[in-house]
Amino acid sequence: MPKPVQVKRLNSQDIGFIETLLSSLSLPMADDEAIDAAVVKILTAVKAKGDAAVLEFTKQFDRLNVAKVSELEITRPELERAYNELSAVQKNALDVAAQRVRAYHEKQKIEAGCHSWEYEEADGTRLGQKVTPLDRVGIYVPGGKAAYPSSVLMNAIPAKVAGVAEVIMVVPTPDGSRNPLVLAAAYLAGVDRVFTIGGAQAVAALAYGTETIPSVDKIVGPGNAYVAAAKRRVFGTVGIDMIAGPSEILVLCDGSSNPDWVAMDLFSQAEHDEQAQSILLCPDAKFIEQVQDSINRLLPEMPRAKVIEASLTNRALFIQVQDMKQACEIANAIAAEHLEICTVDPRQWADQIRHAGAIFMGNYTSESLGDYCAGPNHVLPTARTARFSSPLGVYDFIKRSSMIEVSEAGAQTLGAIASTLAHGEGLQAHARAAEMRLKK
Amino acid sequence: MPKPVQVKRLNSQDIGFIETLLSSLSLPMADDEAIDAAVVKILTAVKAKGDAAVLEFTKQFDRLNVAKVSELEITRPELERAYNELSAVQKNALDVAAQRVRAYHEKQKIEAGCHSWEYEEADGTRLGQKVTPLDRVGIYVPGGKAAYPSSVLMNAIPAKVAGVAEVIMVVPTPDGSRNPLVLAAAYLAGVDRVFTIGGAQAVAALAYGTETIPSVDKIVGPGNAYVAAAKRRVFGTVGIDMIAGPSEILVLCDGSSNPDWVAMDLFSQAEHDEQAQSILLCPDAKFIEQVQDSINRLLPEMPRAKVIEASLTNRALFIQVQDMKQACEIANAIAAEHLEICTVDPRQWADQIRHAGAIFMGNYTSESLGDYCAGPNHVLPTARTARFSSPLGVYDFIKRSSMIEVSEAGAQTLGAIASTLAHGEGLQAHARAAEMRLKK
């Protein structure tokens, strides 16, 4: 039985409160030079030797000994079989989740401007932007203890909704153990090809291509420190998504919620890993005490109590604030990955939030509903990056090209302007190119 | 007088053509460990010592010896004076350019989905996404020989159109020499504060903040190898734009254009720097010969002939193709920063282009018009990254938060699904959080 957890308390009126808060948010950067050096070796080997290097590293790290990379591919019929062999309950849950995630991202494709546009000016000049899906995308799916079918849906479905022609998934299967739910999710999400490879060697294969594994244009999906270091290194050769930090939840309460629900929502973040962070902001000292009591009452029931206990002890915070308005200001400073607003009329507070990955409004919106099946993406910016970045979305799988068609009349007016500015910058060929289009 | 340039020729029917082409596109990565080590030192010093370190490095690198960082700030009235002191012709050119860039990006803000949206489901559950501009953005503007007022407009205007509250520009002024056009452009674009600092120390000041310089949420704008290395290092603490490589132009001709115009457009890329790349794709061998002749006839007139000659000799390519359809396929493989389609009916070929930063259609659309005043952004993806990234735009200065409000009824249906999936992933607190919201 776990011993009682005492969550660290802060009060917004403490001297130096904001400094204490911000320093509690940051983790020392895992800037491991040894990991980086190992990754460089793997990337270089795969780039130079292709399939042979992939086979070697897969034998070394995952203890899979095969003669050809093609033996590491799982075919669509095999994925379909994994799906068909699920229980009716699991199949239905996965179906509904996939369908809701797809519906949300289809709305997003329309609303978030993933379409081409153009306008014409009076002199016939036409300007606009053309939207094109990426040709080929790689999805990294972790194997072993953190193999999450929901992540397969969340990464692959937006790519397919965007119109990506080929989605290639890599998933390590140490000692050959495959997760049927992950394969079923890949089938449902429309993943085109699956290779059972992982680590930096999988990132390298996707970035550079090998004889068997085609190179992709962008790599998304979470992974361990080696995968993260490899993604950083191949950035530029291919696109990458954000490098994810430990998961975080911030709960704003006005004291009107069920403290057990709040405690369980904090647990559901804390159970991810010992570095995960759960924070409660509340003006009501009595309610904070109730949540603390709920934690100690509910913790012994939890199968992952040890992880939860470590996470809450190391990283959780209960912050007593002056009022809900101040809670919103502090929430903007924290810029949390997940923000729950468990209050009466949550919209009034949501309106004051500028920085958060996802905002869960009202007592019925537990973060776990969003994690699995509400529809929005569960890949969200961590570590205060919600100040400048967004949930994974359809917009991550398209890109834009500017479209410019200057008419003969337009070239006359624009040419004079461009010539003046180009001479001002000392770029005379730019000026001449514009001047040549002027009528004598 | 420069000696005649002979541009390297390729033919799409050559054996190993695609390999030769792709290897001609790539430059050895400037992965300079010495630069990176120097940058780490500067970043660490500025993070630890703030203003004092900024003053020290600015004295060391730019020979500016001042007592306080506030002396390095250029106030809005000083910017306005620089603008007012321009010649009428320059003032008008800058006005028109700023106005056209603003108009284009205002259309983009609407069309590219930079707005919040939401929808409601039958059971009252509401889902959507909230769009918020970034709070504060830093713009790096190079000083010295490559000080471009047009780049100030192209970086600052989309940020302001997005609604960024505070745009902070940094620009080194070695030995105190200020470029009045750059300051005037900052005034016109609505830049809020300007500091005359540069290099890795400016990136560090913007990323971490100092006593005088506020920290920003994202840093954009081009710079030298030190600036690029610093941006890579602070990525995650702040957002960054793409790391730009040498500029490139790809011209598709069917043989119907004026060869002098094409030659000058190739020059206007080549004059940027010796690593810039200019490529011509054309099915007509005679036209290629005419462009080669134009080059040698026009080159002696160019003030920047030495740079152009070096760039064309080192990196230019004339590629003879089978037909325009094949030219488009090759253009997709190249994924150029700038693509000119100088043909009859350029739209039919533009439709076949999937990968390019900007597409310039028709003989009157010289790239230089787009560089300065057509309206679209001139910050474009280089080095084949147009396969997965976009021109700088309003969308780079906003970010999204998912909005989720599950109704009590919605929590019943979604809760059952989430519970099944969470148990499948071994995350029991996630399951319990959903189950607690189910009615008994």
From TrEMBL, chains A, B:
TM annotation in the entry: none
Biochemical pathway: Amino-acid biosynthesis; L-histidine biosynthesis; L-histidine from 5-phospho-alpha-D-ribose 1-diphosphate: step 9/9
Cofactor: Zn(2+)
Gene3D superfamilies, per database record: 1.20.5.1300, Nitrogenase molybdenum iron protein domain
Amino-acid positions noted as binding Zn(2+) in the UniProt annotation, renumbered to this chain: Q269, H272, D371, H430
GO cellular component, one term: cytosol
HAMAP family, per database record: HisD
Family: Belongs to the histidinol dehydrogenase family.
Identification of the protein by name: Histidinol dehydrogenase
Natural source organism: Polynucleobacter asymbioticus (strain DSM 18221 / CIP 109841 / QLW-P1DMWA-1)
